[in-house]
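Our preliminary data section would be incomplete without showing what the modeling component actually yields. Below, a chain of 277 amino acids is followed by its predicted structure, encoded as tokens that our downstream tools consume directly.
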Amino acid sequence: MIPPNSPNPIQNLLQLAQDLRSPTGCPWDKEQNHKSVIPHLLEEVYEVVDTIENNDDPHLKEELGDLLFQIVFHCQLANERDAFQWDDVVNGIVEKLIRRHPHVYENSALTNSSEVLLQWDEIKKKEKANKSDQSILADIPRALPAIQRSEKIQSKVSKQGFDWDHPLDLFTKLKEEISELEEAIGNNPRMDGKKIAYDENIEEELGDIFFLMVNLSKKLSLDPETTLRKANQKFENRFQILESLIAQNGETIKGKPLSELDQYWAKAKEILKNRKA
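Predicted structure:
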């Protein structure tokens, strides 16, 4: 068990994970494995991101602690399987980062971040030189969120010259992809209530548009995940004002015609615009 007033915080955390998994530990923690706690790991990552975006230092400290525990917990699970332990993880990342920063730890001066990224990629290539799978896409985890994986795929192929030269070139391709989606939907699509029924061809064409929009974001020096998160927040802010405006009239949203909701939406948009002015 954790010794009282121990001066070693990380050792306390490692011991805590061990305690929770011990025979006399927590029933829930004892039932978990690497895969079962994936949702909690992802949730903690997004909560850290949320506090950073909100400039919320007190909660950032708390959420970083939650994320750190997830890492420690995975190390405890691995240690129980004799796969690796905490020290192996720490030593491994220290060695890798030193190896990939010769401009800091060796006599290899670089002048800007672009040179650093190029050197980083070259070092990674050398590290993977002995691996059987030589595809430049082989090391991109399939479990990444779709937008993030799309970014990594397109970044890697772009470095090989497989990319459009100018952002405006993408608009021609975008129009082409939109036309193909319209053609896939057709004039009389099969309906499932108010939705178009699932169609594999439609899914493929829409996927092409999503993929292209990630590339366009990169060309515009925008992070697609951040851009979409901001769009989500903007919609949420407007919709909450719309809800408030309708409630002030003693009414509810459900059952109102879309034309009337559009009028409330326009008012909400104007209110937000005035707040920013």
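The chain is about 65% helix and 0% strand. The mean pLDDT is 91. Preliminary results of this kind motivate Aim 1 of the renewal.
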